[in-house]
Amino acid sequence: MEHLVTLGVAVGFLCVLCSLFMRWNELRHWRRGLPPGTMGWPVVGETIEFLRRGPDFMKKQRARYGSLFTSHLLGSPTVVSTDLEVNRWILMNEGKGLVPGYPRAMAVILGEGNVSAVHGPVHRVVRGALMSVIGPAAVRDRLFPTLDEFIGSRLHSWGGGGATLDVQEKAREMLLSSTLKLISGTETGETAAELKAEFFTLLRGTLSLPVNLPGTAYRRGLQARKRITSLLRDLIEERRSPSAPKGGGDILSFLLREEERQEEQEVHRTRPKLTDDQTIDLLVTIMYTGFEAVSSTVTMVVKYLHDHPSALQELRNEYSEIGRRKSSPDEALTWEDYTSMSFTRAVILETMRLATIVNGVMRKTTKDIPINGFVIPKGWRILVYVRESNYDSLRYPMSLCFDPWRWKDRSLENHPYFMAFGCGGRLCLGKELAMVETSLFLYYFLTRYRWEETGGDEIVLFPRVEAPRGLHIRLWTN
Ligand code: HEM
């Protein structure tokens, strides 16, 4: 009995201590003019609930405090915005003190010069350089044939005869290899193998707590970044050597040729010369930025098509039409073939909407920002949460159903509130590249194979869209 009383007192004391702690944490961050909300525990804030209950946590807080509320997420005091107008305003007004605010581990590991770490004139230079190598014109004029050949031949070797494979893992490997091929012209050999292995360590490091102690994912991420930098630096040196073959069609060759061309014609310099460090940051950015989003899209599109035979059939019809225009089944696809795949584009957009491949983007305030009658203090993070706008039943009737036909209304893709690729000055530079990669995957996958899921695989949609233990399918050639 005595023990129970002591235990009860101890628990009661702990509860009082906890609530005092939480109150202290709220007061610590309290400022007149902030939106309402809660801050959770010191240091961890509400991160655990946010990661565990994601969309439900957001809905609960929104119902309680409105579409703009405070929280403490991923180590920073944060204002969450679920308001469409506010979201758009934030993304359109970087110049007013709203710079990207991604977690520290990401900024440090990806490098000071990575596109999300820079702003103002430096951002314009980096964005311009990226645009010249992965923007829509580059995809159409230079990258498309390489991707077509690469993705087509990769999918040849996926198997058949009922073999089982994990489509998520295969897609990840294929996309990383195709990016290496685009960057350096090859995805095989020792350097490529090492780059791939180090890349996955880097990826894990960027999503970890920035604790630089032996054995942590962050420390390993930093080491991987160092090794990747050194491999890319060697590659640049090799390319510059007089004996190196000239005129490769990959991104690195293009950047080095541009550099030479601009040096020869100094007067025509259209943008400042990139340093080698900037070139390396640029290549790492290209490997990193699209990788997760495109492999999640590929995984989810396979899932949705498996569950929706009528959409699958319409895609097959679209590809039969393209096949009829070819003199042999092995004839390469052209840019015109790609732009004629309107239902494919609709399927991809619907997949991105329904799965919400990107839940939100982060900003950091560089001064006090007045928004909607509140003031967001300097140094705070803003989570521009776009997930709920994807399920707006006015814009997307039966919004929880997979309905690619809704995208036949082309105005939906360009609607100001469709923010799957962000908006404003940081609108995704890889949108067309992602569309091409996913379209080519679908074309070759569907024209070569039939598949069924082995069943039992779980898909999670928050904080990242993924199948934690893979998405396993059985595959037969057509
Ligand atoms: C399904 C595929 C993709 C989705 C959903 C997606 C989504 C996004 C979003 C939402 C942003 C805005 C980030 C912000 O405002 O902070 C963004 C930016 C960016 N994306 Fe993508 N992306 C995809 C694929 C790609 C690919 C394949 C690449 C290139 C390899 C790429 C390169 C970039 C770059 C460089 C930026 C930064 C632009 C800047 O800060 O100026 N993305 N993307």
Strand order across the biggest sheet? Answer: 1-2-8-5-3
Q: What is the quaternary state of this protein?
A: single chain
Order of helices and strands: HHEEHEHHHEHHHHHHHHHEEEEHEE
Q: CATH homologous superfamily name of the largest domain?
A: Cytochrome P450
- Count of individual beta strands: 10
**How large is the radius of gyration?**
24 Å
Structural class: alpha+beta
Domains (count): 2
Binned strand content: 5-15%
- Biggest sheet layout: 5 strands, mixed
Distance between the termini: 73 Å
* Overall helicity: 40-55%
Can you give a write-up of this model?
The protein is α+β, with helices and mostly antiparallel strands. The chain folds into 2 domains: 2-82, no CATH class; 110-477, Orthogonal Bundle (Cytochrome p450), CATH 1.10.630. The chain is built from 16 helices and 10 strands. Helix 12 packs across helix 15 (342-355). The model has no long low-confidence stretch (mean pLDDT 91). The structure holds protoporphyrin IX containing FE (HEM). Its cofactor is heme.
